Predict the 3D structure of the following.
Amino acid sequence: MKRADCIEALYPELEDRLVVTIMGACAQELYDLGHRENFFYLQHAMGLASSIGLGLAMNLPDEKVVVLDGDGSVLMNMGGLATLGRYRPRNLTHIIFDNGSLLSTGGFTSHTTSGIVDLATVAKGAGCPNVTPVNNMFQFMEAAAEAFENEAMSTIVAKVEAIGPDHFGMDFKLPENAIRFARFIKDR
């Protein structure tokens, strides 16, 4: 299963949700489908997408928040899972794409490659409710549909191939994206 295919399948459902992505390939793949003002690409801040998503979900309880994360980022900020498990905002869906690689920072293998670190098990152990590991597109779409309909925090850990986009580049940088994203929220 490819992360880009998962993101493309989710894209129509993201129109009315606040979306935060990690840096690199995940952000680029979403951007390439067509930027929306409710998308915040957290460039150059590896490990913090779940923290930004948590802050949005807690401060904007009437908004649905989706975090598109990666195994490398989650491993870099394991405390983020514990904090999510502590607060459990009902309006947050946390999707972790586990490709077993630090693809956007050189392609080194991550700790999930060994088979010892299982992020779904870690998330459950951290207290995150509704954790669903998935390995194929059918499971992914089923888990996403359930998470989006739920009135409870959900975490999806999707095993994907270590394949990224063939290019990187966006029309705007992080400061402009942050200003436009904040304006979108304010105007709602």
Notes: The beta strands are 18-21, 39-41, 65-70, 92-98, 101-102, 108-109, 131-134, 154-159. The radius of gyration is 15 Å. The chain has eight helices and eight strands.
